[in-house]
Amino acid sequence: MREVILCKYGEIVLKGLNKSYFESLLTAQIKRRLKELGTCDISTCQSVLYIEPRSDDFDFEEALRRVNTVFGISAVIRAAACEKDMEEIKKTAAEYLPRYIKGTETFKVTGKRSDKRFPFTSPEISAEVGGAVLEKVPGLKVDLYSPQRIFHVEVRENAAYLHAEGTRGAGGIPCGSAGRALLLLSGGIDSPVAGYMMAKRGAVIDALHFESFPYTSERAKEKVVSLAHILAEYTGKLNMHVISLTRIQEQMRRSVEEEYFTLLLRRSMMRLAERCARKYYCEAIVTGESLGQVASQTMQALGVTDRVVDMPVFRPCIGMDKEEIIAIARKINTFETSILPYEDCCTVFTPKHPKTRPSLDRVEEQEKRMDFSSLEDEAFANTEEITVKRY
Ligand code: ATP
Ligand code: MG
After folding, report:
1. Which residues of the chain have pLDDT under 50?
2. Residues in a beta bridge with 243
3. Domains of the chain, earliest start first
4. Alpha helix locations (H) across the chain?
5. 8 Å CB contact between 224 and 320
6. Centroid of ligand 1 to alpha carbon of 174 (angstroms)
7. Which residues, other chains included, contact 264 with Cβ-Cβ below 8 Å and sequence gap of 6+?
8. Which residue from 46, 159, 326, 358 has the least number of CB within 10 angstroms?
9. What is the model's pLDDT at position 321?
10. Distance from the CA of 360 to the center of ligand 1, in angstroms?
11. Which of 182, 183, 190 has most ligand 1 atoms within 8 Å of its beta carbon, as the pocket-test mutant?
12. Cα–Cα distance between 145 and 56 in angstroms, integer?
């Protein structure tokens, strides 16, 4: 008996003429993720991707874990594969399926014949295999209407596959199918979640982090690098750019009114982000902002910030409350790192009463009080580059 992994496509099935493009991206992602785990065959047929181990040392459990982080898959199923012969199928069913029966009293088998040359109909397959399981596990009962367990037998092109219910996959569409975006990655809870959500929609992610050394520490930056490593589990290797805002912030403290501090800083961050995005061929900026969360995230403040950029700014967390964002952060494993208590450049020199309903005129007037342009040139020229791989 051979054990294999079946990955059912998610949204890819809805793609018309483009389907094979998405399929090839998905296959490439899976190949990349499984590369060091031993030899396996990867093939696709009828909206299912098959992973069949070819070497004894193939790390099956790790492969299962990894495919669960690949976008484009709606369900991951561990199955037994055997020859398309009814006796073989029944033998495999008796050997393989009982392991899923613990604590179960009722079951049913759903047979499916995709290969119409197979000489048994779908209901016949169900009945034969159900009988084989019953024979092996006395006391078990068939319940066609509300069984505790459903087993599936699929007779497909190359083989027959037997399995219990699968688990939910990562969903989304394959990374690389939706362009490249620059994520503004802070050490907080929201921005890693925003990056994950864009990657789930197919975007390749670059990360940009702003530091303000020595007001922010080396440890704070290391924490952000750790977050990027965790994100890379989903996004694949990512390029991280680090820009220092120290000189800009110091100059701001001397030149502009305190209540405009955050807004001006965010506009400066956005201008730098756009430069960075263009340099690295990113077509959009992504932030972890959520409407009304803090003063700089009111509709008016976001409007004033967006005025300085000429590319789409995506904010996938905009309509979520903190609890919803935290639930995702926990799921993707960034939460525990995000809550480590380090400072962020946005929290140094924060005003006591930031403007929540800024007027663009007043903001622009304040902005003219110092030479942002040359300070930004200098900050941009000193961008630090870090390549972040999966752990
Ligand atoms: P997060 O939890 O992601 O830090 P937040 O609730 O702390 O978000 P802010 O600090 O106001 O919110 O930041 C809003 C967004 O601006 C962040 O989600 C992130 O995209 C971006 N941002 C904030 N600080 C930085 C930084 N130091 N470097 C890069 N981007 C940042
Ligand atoms: Mg933050």
Report:
1. none
2. 210
3. 2-170 (3.30.2130.30), 180-388 (3.40.50.620)
4. 19-34, 60-67, 86-96, 122-136, 190-200, 218-235, 246-255, 261-279, 299-306, 322-331, 335-338, 360-367, 372-381
5. no
6. 26
7. 252, 256, 363, 366, 367, 372
8. 46
9. 95
10. 22
11. 190
12. 40
Helical H runs in 57-205? 60-67, 86-96, 122-136, 190-200
Structure tokens at 223: 């924490």
Encode pLDDT of 264-286 as tens digits.
Answer: 999 999 999 999 999 999 999 99
Which pLDDT score, from 0 to 100, does residue 320 have?
A: 97
Distance from Cα 48 to the centre of ligand 1, integer Å: 39
Contacts of 177 (CB under 8 A, 6+ apart): 21, 22, 25, 202
pLDDT at residue 296, as a whole number: 84
Identify the pLDDT of residue 24.
95
Residue type, 355: K
Substitution site in 306, 346, 348, 386 for ligand 1 pocket (most atoms within 8 Å of beta carbon): 346
Coil, strand or helix: which one is 150?
strand
Note the maximum CA span of the chain: 85
